């Protein structure tokens, strides 16, 4: 099983700067580098027969519904552990990100244990769901059906969005689940823990397995005196949460609202929160790149001790392999409403590219192969991050300039393309969007090469192995 430990950010349409819905996640892996790529899956290429690589779970052919939709995805480059499509937007402008690895406890595992054989996991969910849904809530229904029929061998959270709604779903045990609609004026930070807290079974903004409430009552799972808090009932509150999960949420809560306060290890940070301003793409990218700047816990900072710098797990980390923001816009025609912002490699030294998703192909530099290749942006970003890590004080400013320049140039291309599409439709429109995506990919690739060159020039005189003529 590929280890994946991510950070999910969700922002409702009334909480974003432009009225779009945004769902984001950094896809993080383990010690081994896992190259990621950017694909578009045409309807004809959607599998007609499916078997999971990891669990060998076969899906009944009748559950691979007719007339699948085209969709984008960010799968593993090698495919040796399965597809792991990660995230995408389909041709009906429905977005899905899956999955956030989350926690559980022995009480629910003793009742509905995770499967030891068979079942579905992160490898499967996007491929089996995204081409078949026409609204965010249909994503909840589809995954709920799959979980109840086939079960799962791991705990996962996932999100779905359309132009109006965002839904977040968490698996519970081997066959159960719960989901909540995110309020339009709210945001969510979901690290690797069970995140849903307050839950109401008789409310249209909440959904769950039909027997979930009865299961809680029958097995006396609720520790609270009143109400239902799913994190208390099905989740964890461990030392690992205090050091690995909670601090990531705490730091971003205080970024979005400086009055949030609290302590990094607080176990009961709220699931639904409100920022003190409208949230932008740049805000989410900064959050997904963050490493406790201006605190004693920043590994690159000079405030803390060596021990403090290793106390909490940051969001921006060497194990970021792919990060996306799935944006469904409300101020443009539906043909260009879906945008998959995408970056590869550690978020401390990369820039996101806003790819239109009404497309038939993806730029070659984002079609990563499994072997090291500096023609591919994944490997180029990995190289700049590893060099930048050797002296962040020197290289960090170069990266900040690179990222602002790249985002500005991509925004400009996007604005120009948005205005030009009124003269295009059908295949001609898709061709126009393919070319716009290529232009943005080329721009960021060339800027990254320039960044690497600037880092080499700046670092030349900083090498330890040197001996000047005047020494």
UniProtKB/TrEMBL annotation:
UniProt keyword annotation of Acetylation present: no
In which domain of life is the source organism classified? Answer: Bacteria
Q: Which organism is it from?
A: Lactobacillus johnsonii ATCC 33200
Record keywords: Dipeptidase, Hydrolase, Protease
Q: What is this protein called?
A: Dipeptidase
Q: Which reaction does it catalyse?
A: an L-aminoacyl-L-amino acid + H2O = 2 an L-alpha-amino acid
> What Pfam families does its record include?
Peptidase_C69
Q: Which family does the record assign?
A: Belongs to the peptidase C69 family.
Tell me its EC number(s), please.
Answer: 3.4.-.-
Gene Ontology MF annotations: cysteine-type exopeptidase activity; dipeptidase activity
Q: Which GO terms describe its biological process?
A: proteolysis
């Amino acid at each position: 099983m590929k280890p994946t430990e991510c950070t999910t950010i969700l922002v409702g349409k009334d909480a974003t700067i432009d009225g779009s819905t945004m769902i984001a996640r950094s896809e993080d892996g383990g010690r081994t580098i896992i190259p990621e790529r950017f694909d578009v899956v045409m309807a004809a290429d959607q599998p007609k027969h499916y078997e999971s690589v990891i669990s060998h779970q076969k899906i009944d052919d009748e559950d691979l519904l007719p007339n699948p939709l085209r969709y984008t995805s960010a799968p593993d480059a090698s495919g040796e552990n399965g597809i792991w499509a990660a995230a995408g937007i389909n041709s009906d402008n429905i977005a899905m990100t899956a999955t956030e690895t989350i926690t559980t406890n022995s009480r629910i595992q003793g009742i509905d244990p995770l499967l030891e054989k068979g079942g579905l996991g992160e490898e499967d969910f996007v491929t089996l769901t995204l081409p078949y849904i026409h609204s965010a809530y249909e994503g909840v229904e589809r995954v709920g059906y799959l979980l109840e029929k086939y079960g799962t061998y791991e705990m996962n959270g996932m999100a779905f969005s359309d132009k109006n709604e965002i839904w977040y779903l968490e698996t519970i045990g081997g066959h159960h689940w719960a989901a909540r609609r995110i309020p339009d004026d709210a945001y969510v930070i979901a690290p690797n823990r069970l995140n849903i807290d307050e839950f109401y079974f008789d409310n249209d903004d909440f959904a769950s397995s039909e027997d979930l409430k009865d299961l809680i009552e029958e097995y006396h799972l609720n520790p609270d005196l009143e109400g239902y808090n799913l994190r208390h009932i099905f989740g964890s509150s461990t030392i690992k949460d205090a050091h690995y999960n909670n601090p990531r949420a705490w730091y971003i809560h205080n970024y979005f609202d400086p009055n949030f306060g609290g302590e990094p290890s607080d176990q009961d940070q709220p699931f639904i929160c409100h920022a003190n301003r409208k949230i932008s793409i740049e805000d989410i990218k900064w959050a997904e790149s963050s490493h406790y700047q201006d605190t004693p816990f920043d590994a690159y900072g000079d405030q803390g001790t060596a021990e403090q710098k290793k106390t909490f797990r940051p969001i921006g980390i060497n194990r970021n392999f792919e990060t996306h923001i799935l944006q469904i816009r409300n101020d443009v025609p539906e043909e260009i409403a879906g945008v998959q912002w995408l970056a590869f490699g550690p978020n401390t030294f990369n820039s996101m590219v806003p790819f239109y998703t009404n497309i038939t192909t993806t730029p070659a530099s984002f079609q990563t192969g499994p072997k090291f290749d500096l023609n591919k942006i994944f490997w180029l970003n990995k190289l700049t991050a590893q060099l930048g890590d050797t002296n962040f004080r020197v290289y960090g400013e170069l990266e900040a300039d690179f990222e602002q320049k790249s985002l500005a140039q991509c925004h400009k291309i996007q604005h120009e393309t948005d205005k030009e599409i009124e003269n295009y439709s059908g295949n001609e429109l898709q061709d126009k969007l393919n070319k716009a995506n290529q232009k943005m990919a080329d721009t960021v690739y060339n800027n990254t090469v320039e960044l690497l060159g600037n880092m080499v020039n700046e670092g030349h005189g900083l090498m330890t192995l040197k001996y000047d003529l005047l020494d």
